[in-house]
Amino acid sequence: MAFQIVASQCTACGACEFECPSAAIKFKGETYIIDPKKCTECEGAFDTQQCAAVCPVPKTCIPVKH
Amino acid sequence: MLSLDAISSVIDLDAMRAKLDEGGCKSSSCGSSAKPDDMEADIWEKIKDHPCYSEEAHHYFARMHVAVAPACNIQCNYCNRKYDCANESRPGVVSEKLTPDQALRKVVTVANEVPQLSVLGIAGPGDACYDWKKTKATFKEVSKYIPDIKLCISTNGLALPEHVDELMDMNVDHVTITINMVDPEIGAKIYPWIFYKHKRYTGIEASQILHERQMQGLEMLTARGILTKINSVMIPGVNDDHLVEVNKWVKERGAFLHNVMPLISEAEHGTHFGLTGQRGPTAMELKALQDELDGGAKLMRHCRQCRADAVGLLGEDRGQEFTLDQLPEEIHYDPAKREAYREVVARERGDHVAAKSVAIAAVKDVVETGSLLVAVATKGGGRVNEHFGHAKEFQVYEASPKGIVFVGHRKVEQYCLGGFGEDATLDGVIAALEGVDVVLCAKIGDCPKDQLTAAGIRATDAHAHDYIETAIFALVMETFGADAGAELAPMSA
């Protein structure tokens, strides 16, 4: 399981990058991207997913659909 | 006499030096006479070149903001950074975000070209204290190149307490905190959520935490002698009456200045307040609140609510001349222009302050009751030196038994573009001048003058290039003449 960022809505503020406890988020091109292999959904680190909790745009940092 | 007007457009260093040689007084220290009598010398030393902290300095010195801190830890109902636009002038808006390295190139380039530059601020577009690594890296790099530039930040206060000591170490001696409430119930109507200690908080709990952190941060800054300015957004029906309480709280905790700003809430900005139809205050409502707060924490009335990437004197924005693609790869700082400019200002300023205090004392002497609102077209230097049709804003002064006080500014669209006046624009200018009795400008055509007269506003260019206060005193005398001493009231009354 992992989170993903909806690129068209991302403001590229970068808050998720430095809040991520797994260093799973990097700036690429014009937006931030979450590496699903590194994303742990903050399990074991925090109660809530940090990227989603800090993201300023609603429904922009969301769980990957299966 | 040396005229600043003459050199402000001349960015040529040799021309500035030539102007300096014409001046009578050789010592640049004569500018120290600009210090107001009721201010401690050490505080004056801190603010005398800061356009935001000193109304007097804003006629001479410029600020620049670098947009290195895009991340934010709170959501405000008046902010939505998704819709940034080069044509918008309001806080939180930028055209391009910069890395600390890019910011360094930009600051050095501006310092070489804009001799008025005295202050580097980081005001987001997110929060300078929350996006701390970038803020810190930028200040460290820039101070290596330009040691005398003043550093300042603007923050919502939530992440402020943990960085106060580092701010102190980096010689940041001006901090602005945006405080819109001291009552979390009111806060809940302004802040939908905050992100604090790895958790998102909402409702009253969020505002309670924010409020406590803001007060803690303010107290810590005051204890360390860092000057603080409190910005409050005036939101009619939400916190307008409450700002009286905010003013008391921040005064008790040592705030140096309180800046009440009108809410900006156009629907097209996509903010919560914009979309729900929450209106901002009118110019006269803002003035009424500011007048009510008079006597509490000292008010800043010359704020232009500038962008997080603004460059230049307050009221102007030269940001578009310094976009990333225009910056040189290699930078070399040359302090000569800024130094020469400072010397010119030091001389001119003493002269201005002397003229100003004579005019203010005379108005106090002559006017017993009533007041006159005067809108001035100026491009800096404290003089009436802008054409009516070229003005993008008017600075508003009030002559009353208290003397001559700067009370605010009114933004307008330029009436005259390409040599022709637009009637529709003139209507907008007249509306923006609500409550104003007289307009002072360097030049005005007969047609706009007649239309202003029809709207009950007198306009004159008879005092072109005088100091603003000297011109206002002359207005008071010529309007009320020998009977002055009785009542000062608008012409139409």
Question: Can you describe this structure?
Answer:
The complex is a heterodimer of chains A (66) and B (493). With 66 residues, chain A is an alpha+beta fold. Chain A has helices at residues 15-19, 50-54; strands at 3-5, 25-28, 31-34, 61-63. Helices cover 15% and strands 21% of the residues of chain A. Chain A is globular and about 30 Å long. Chain A starts with a strand and ends with a strand. Chain B has 493 residues and is α/β, with parallel strands linked by helices. Helix content of chain B is 34%, strand content 17%. Chain B has helices spanning 4-8, 13-22, 41-47, 100-113, 132-145, 164-169, 184-187, 203-223, 243-252, 272-275, 283-293, 336-366, 423-432, 446-454, 468-480; strands at 62-65, 74-75, 117-122, 150-155, 172-178, 193-196, 199-202, 227-234, 257-262, 311-313, 369-370, 372-376, 393-400, 403-411, 416-417, 420-421, 438-440, 458-460, 487-488. Chain B has a seven-stranded mixed β-sheet. In chain B, strands 14-13-12-17-18 form a five-stranded mixed β-sheet. A three-stranded antiparallel β-sheet of chain B has the order 2-6-7. The radius of gyration of chain B is 22 Å and the shape is globular. Chain B starts with a helix and ends in a 5-residue tail after the last strand. Classes of the chains: A alpha+beta (66), B alpha/beta (493). Chain A binds chain B through residues 9, 11-15, 18-19, 46-48, 50, 53-54, 56-57, and chain B through 70-73, 75, 81-82, 97, 126, 130-131, 133, 195, 198-200.
